TrEMBL record:
Stated name of the protein: NGG1-interacting factor 3
UniProt KW Metal-binding keyword: yes
InterPro entries the record matches: DUF34/NIF3 (IPR002678), DUF34/NIF3_sf (IPR036069)
MF terms (GO), sorted A to Z: metal ion binding
Tagged with keyword Metal-binding: yes
Pfam families per record: DUF34_NIF3
Protein family: Belongs to the GTP cyclohydrolase I type 2/NIF3 family.
UniProt-annotated binding residues for a divalent metal cation: H67, D102, H214, E218
Length: 251
């Protein structure tokens, strides 16, 4: 399965597309698979203790975690590395594609907002996707809340705009990619997370900003990823984690 999963990603999201100057992608935990008989894969955005427990309870030995379970070099192992220890103890191997998937995630997000999976994918720049828009800010927020299965979503409007304003242009980027959008103006910015000052920057450039929280837009893509993998890996069972969730809560 290690080779099959690697080959599958090479077909549609090669690790060569990742931002390897700072990112950490690929098989970050690789166990001996010669004694493993099951062909189950768990998909998650973050590998938390709750997700790992779900994996163990369901006898799953392969995890595809979008975010790297190991990000920077480890100089020592301690209780903070509990997840790594538990993966090794339970013969669980972990593959992390991270930024190699970003363009596909953003194309999927763009098409979801446009509400036409067969539409033009928009243009790609610095990993973000932009193109024409025909929806009001309110409509975009409602689409995203439904797709993300959340009740609230933060937003900011430029001067003289309302939730019913329809901007001609749209740019999207999952995660923390607002720094790659700074030249954008006169449109809707949909982003995972963004600083206070970058919000003001976009508002001053006649934009509306919609903030999904870091992982919600990424998580939208997991069912699509499941379908792609099922077409690339034979006779396997793929489960999207039911315990994976954005850590930010609203009262």
């Amino acid at each position: 399965m290690i080779t099959e999963i690697s080959n599958a990603f090479e077909n549609f999201a090669s690790l060569s597309k990742a931002e390897t100057s700072w990112d950490n992608v690929g098989w970050l935990i690789e166990n001996d698979t010669s004694i493993i008989n099951n062909r189950k894969i768990l998909l998650t955005i973050d590998l938390t203790e709750e997700v790992l427990d779900e994996c163990v309870r369901n006898n799953i030995n392969y995890i595809i975690s979008y975010h790297p379970v190991i990000f920077s070099g480890l100089k020592r192992l301690n209780r903070e590395n509990k997840i790594i220890f538990l993966c090794i103890k339970n013969d669980i191997s972990v593959f992390c594609p991270h930024t190699s998937l970003d363009i596909l995630m953003n194309k999927y997000l763009f098409k979801t907002i446009i509400n036409n999976k067969n539409c033009d994918e928009g243009s790609v720049s610095k990993g973000c996707v932009s193109g024409s828009n025909v929806r009001s800010v309110r409509d975009i927020i409602n689409i995203l809340k439904k797709e993300c299965n959340i009740l609230t979503m933060r937003y900011s409007l430029g001067t003289n705009h309302t939730l019913d304003t329809i901007f001609d242009n749209l740019i999207v980027g999952v995660g923390a990619c607002s720094k790659n959008m700074m030249d954008f103006a006169n449109g809707v910015v949909v982003v995972g997370e963004i600083s206070h000052h970058n919000i003001l920057h976009f508002v001053s450039r006649n934009c509306a900003v919609i903030i999904m929280e870091h992982t919600n837009g990424e998580r939208m893509y997991l069912n699509e990823l499941k379908s792609i993998l099922l077409n690339n890996i034979k006779e396997c069972e793929i489960i999207v984690s039911s315990k994976d969730k954005d850590p930010v809560l609203f009262l």
